[in-house]
Amino acid sequence: MRAFLKYREIWLLAAIVVLIGLISTRFPAFADPGNLRQVFNDTSILMILALGQMVVILTRSIDLSMASNLCFTGMVVAMLNAAHPAIPIPLLIVIALAVGLVLGAINGLLVWRLNIPSIVVTLGTLTIYRGATFVLSGGAWVNADKMSPEFIGFQRAAFIGIPVLSWIAILVIALFFVLMTRTALGRSIYAIGVNPTASVYAGIDVGRTKFIVFCISGMIGGLSGYLWISRYVIASVEVANGYELNIIAACVIGGISIAGGIGSVGGAVLGALFLGIISNALPVINISPFWQMAISGSAIILAVVLNARGERQQGRIILRKVEAGT
Amino acid sequence: MTDIPAPRHIPDRLDKPLRSAIFSWEALLVVVAVAIFAINSFASPYFLDPYSLSDLTFNFTEKGLIAFAMALLIISGEIDLSVAAIIALASTMMGMAVQAGAGTPVLVAIGIVVGLGCGAFNGLLVTRLGLPSIVVTIGTMSLFRGIAFIILGDQAYKGYPSNFAFFGQGYVWWVVSFELVLFLIAAVVYWFLLHRTSFGRRVFAIGNNPVAAQFSGVRVGRTKFILFCLTGLMSGIASVLITSRLGSTRPSIAQGYELEVITMVVLGGVSILGGAGSILGVVLAAFIMGLVTFGLGLLNVPGIVMSIFIGLLLIIVIALPIVWRRLRGGR
Q1: Residue ranges of the alpha helices (H) in chain A?
Q2: Among all residues of chain A, which has the CA nearest to that of B307?
Q3: Is residue A130 part of a domain?
Q4: Helix B303-329 vs helix B279-298: crossing angle, to nearest 10
Q5: Domain count of chain A?
Q6: What topology is assigned to B49-322 in CATH?
């Protein structure tokens, strides 16, 4: 039991249950299964994005370009759909994944081959990808009336009582769970975050693994691009502006250490859900939505204060520079 | 046998032959700046007008002021993503004071004190609780701007006193704006602080190896705390300038400035990993970013496309020396 309580996910889950309890004292219908399913669906995209960001953060890197990638890829699929409504949705999703992969691979190559810190690379591509969206669209919007009904309806279709969007989120969560706990790549990702130098000696190609990690976050950004655009049915340059920090916030609340090596799929999902519940609950309990930003800011600070106690450095780094020689 | 070992000569500072000066980061930035300046002068006939050039400076002075303090902070191995949010909160507080009938000196004092207070809050969280600054300041970024949103909602504060407009719109002499003078003074002050004082040496020492610095008697926590306060202070000053220039306050004021400031610092040759950098580089980077955005603006290039150039500039300027070394090193 004590070992069980050491998992921070349990504490986060408890915090979420308490939060839902508090909200339902003021608005009882909030805790209805139907409403909670709605909250899950609303948070799906953030959960997917947080998982993509998680694998990057675990390797001591960061991807600030995810929201811009989302914006660009979303514009690509929206324009494709507007021009060729005949393209089936599954193919569009594959295209979104491919475009996202290319953008992620650019980040990954710069980090891997040129050894530029990821925060610098993605700070640059953050503005480049969003600017490229403008160049691509000429500043025009793609509105709902230009999108085909299938494009908009795909994620809303119910399958066994749950919208497809939620199913996609569940599928992505399952895939990441398998990746992180059942594959060699998942172990390498953790190993690099815990100790890059030791990973090199253990035969892990640190640079290549980081490249793969950025490819994963790129594909997630691309997938979310389609999901976001078809959910909010407008594609513009302003889509998800500044959202990269929400994604990182979800990860931080989920207990993923920005120093790398610590974090889990469950944590990322719960961190995103925590933010999702807050944003869904504020309107129904009559708190101005303008409070949301300050509340999530406080939640981030509180989460990092609580998490910091659990991740005091246990080992000492003796050799530092070897990791650069990939 | 005269086997006496030669007395070791430890130079006060490393010799800097001309060669290393030519291949320095600052030299590269000067070349880039001159090139952009030349291209601009050819591309638009309006560029070389003194009044145009004066307008140009408004593009970087406010962000540049923050970039100096941010440079020191990044050299020490920390970062502050909340600077733009501090601007918003300080501006909101000034707006509230205006509604209460405060005069210009009080407004300026409020802007600076709020900035300093926010910086101290960041500094306390990072140094006292030992938290990673990137996460702390993502949190305080939401918190500070969130408070501005709670106070203002979708409203705006207006009605600043007319003599308050001087800070953001006034000229000291001919086309030399107050903002530019402040920027240049700050550049000299920060250059002196970083490159000519023991405080500056401590900042470098902490950035290179915080543990060794601690064992050498540097008070790492206190130094970092001071740096966070300085960054907050500069954000407060920038808030006064921006509020004065715009003459109004919205909670979305200065949105996205934090990334531009960091871009400026990194472009200026400050290592994002800490331990290296110079104020001269940051000054040059500020000029370059101002030149690029203003030159493209004269050519009617939309702001969002300019950001592509800034992003490309950032990556290319960082990547160039690395590629160059690879090619010469034959790796």
Answers
A1: 2-6, 8-26, 33-58, 66-83, 89-114, 118-137, 149-153, 164-182, 184-194, 196-201, 206-232, 243-253, 265-284, 292-310
A2: A127
A3: yes
A4: 130
A5: 1
A6: ABC transporter involved in vitamin B12 uptake, BtuC (1.10.3470)
Contacts of A290 (CB under 8 A, 6+ apart): B146, B149, B150, B152, B153, B154, B251
In chain B, the residue whose alpha carbon lies closest to the alpha carbon of A115 is: B322
Is residue A256 situated within a structural domain? no
Instruction: Please indicate whether, in this complex, the C-beta atoms of B307 and A130 are within 8 angstroms of each other.
Output: yes
Question: Hey, is the C-beta of A119 within 8 angstroms of any chain B C-beta?
Answer: yes
Residue window 203-242, chain A: list those with CB within 8 Å of chain B: 237, 242
- B26-68 pLDDT per residue, tens: 888 888 888 888 888 888 887 778 888 888 888 899 999 999 9
CB–CB contact B256 A242 (8 Å): yes
Query: Domain spans of chain B?
Result: 49-322
Chain A partners within 8 Å of B301 (Cβ)? none
Helix (H, G, I), strand (E, B) or coil at B36: helix
The token pair that represents A201 in the structure block: 């000696």
In a domain, A39, yes or no: no
Q: How far is B134 from chain A (nearest CA, A)?
A: 8
- Name the residue range of residue A62's domain: 45-250
CA distance B61 to B177: 10
Q: How far is A277 from chain B (nearest CA, A)?
A: 17
Closest by Cβ to A297, choosing from B129, B134, B143 = B143
Of A227, A217, A193, which is closest to residue A106 (Cα–Cα)?
A217
Q: What is the pLDDT of residues B222-265, one digit of tens each?
A: 999 999 999 999 999 999 999 999 999 998 888 878 888 988 99
Q: Which of A114, A116, A296 sits opposite B142 (nearest CB)?
A: A296
Q: In this predicted model, what pLDDT tens digit does every residue of A205-238 receive, in sequence order? A: 999 999 999 999 999 999 999 999 999 988 888 8
Distance CA A164, CA A155 (A): 5
B140 contacts in chain A (CB < 8 Å):
297, 301
Asked if residues B133 and B78 have their Cβ atoms less than 8 Å apart, the reply is: yes
A16 belongs to a structural domain:
no
pTM: 0.85
**Residue contact A127–B307, C-beta within 8 A:** yes
Find tokens 């409403």 and name the residue.
A35
